[in-house]
Amino acid sequence: MKLSHILTAPWRAVKNPLFLYQHHRQIHALRVALAFLFGLMINLSFPIQHGSWMLVTIVVMLGNVPHLGAVAQKTRQRTVGTTVGALAGLLALALYGVSPLLSFAWMVLVILLSAYHAIGKAGYTALTVGITLVIVAGVGDGTVDESLWRTANVALGSLISMLAASLFPQRALDHWRFLLSDNLRESALIYSHIARRVPLDTEASLGRFNTRLVAMRGLMSAAASECEQSAVSFESIQRGQRTLYSLFDRMDDIAEKTAVLADGGRQRQAIVKALFRAAHGIRFLHADLLINALPEPQLKERTPGACDWLSAELSQTTRRLCDELLLLMPAILATQQTLLALSKEEALRRLED
User: What residue intervals traverse the membrane (predicted)?
Assistant: First the structure.
């Protein structure tokens, strides 16, 4: 083994998306602390006036936004909001020299518009406009020099936040696909237990499933931005998971009252295998594992019961999810600058375990 490979192994490990996902809280806390320390050192090393605004910006930008895509979105919104708010603040200072009442009227008008647009898609931008206006203009009696220092500090804080987000970057897309992988694996286990009438704490399993589903909802916008795809694809996959949740809930209700499917377990095995393969495919970035060969449900051999219909619907939902993930996979792979996924053989070995 080459010495360079050995020396770079720790660096490659901490950049692995799976490692970043498993330790995302610790890494995020370390990233914010390092960014704050860097901003603090700049303040102590250079005669920067109102440097506290730089530190405030770093904490606000990174505080509860761990993912690179979300930070990039927030930076763009904050840049626009800061620019507009700074210009509005400078105008308020100029108007104060003419008439304090005119300056106050202008500030109230800007805050009114900011609050109106704060409830909507551009909410953060509008909110930043109002905050920056107050930072720059104060109560209208500040100086232009002071206002420019505050604006520069906010801009520098935003830049430091963006650079910090690039340090061991946690992509919302990676977090999203790992949560999806866990849900697909949970789905396979839930269905396998229900179909075989093996006791299972279904309520707890569905609770974990739903918790991940809610977390994925919050990641969709940033994930779509990172892979430059429409959020429609992510919403469709989200609907598919909600369908799985509903099917398992209904299956659990009727499982104790009905017999096991009379097909020798063929359909159950095919669905479980497809779900496990999809879970490994999206986790380890192997598109061929998403290509499933689920057989069409055979409902004409006998009078189908409730379990037959639910299993048939589960089979169709699983097939649709795999197809949608297969279409999304090229965009996901394009975001991986260095492919750190496991080899296909390793993924298949884990699938068989």
Answer: 29-46, 52-72, 84-116, 122-140, 152-169
Residue 14 banded pLDDT, cuts 50, 70, 90: low
User: At CA 42, angle to CA 38 and CA 47, rounded to 5?
Assistant: 165
Contact 256, 330 (CB under 8 A): no
The DSSP bridge partners found for residue 170 are 67
pLDDT > 50? residue 344: no
pTM score: 0.71
pLDDT winner (highest mean) among 69-78, 181-190, 288-297: 181-190
Q: Are 162 and 38 in contact (CB under 8 A)?
A: no
Are 78 and 128 in contact, with CB atoms under 8 Å apart? yes
DSSP tag of 66: -
Alpha-carbon distance 347 to 289, whole Å? 9
Residue 66: which of 27, 122, 18, 36 has the closest Cα? 27
Calculate the alpha carbon distances from 343 to 135, 290, 349 in Å: 53, 15, 10
Q: Phi and psi at residue 108, in whole multiples of 5°?
A: -65, -40
- Residue percentage of the chain with pLDDT more than 90: 27
Quote the tokens at residue 287: 């598109």
What mean pLDDT comes out for the span 221-234?
A: 86
Q: Which sequence spans correspond to the domains of the chain?
A: 3-165, 172-352
Q: What are phi and psi of 241, to 5 degrees?
A: -70, -35
- Residues 194/40, Cβ–Cβ less than 8 Å: no
Whether 94 and 141 have beta carbons less than 8 Å apart is answered as no
Residue 346: both structure tokens together: 């390793």
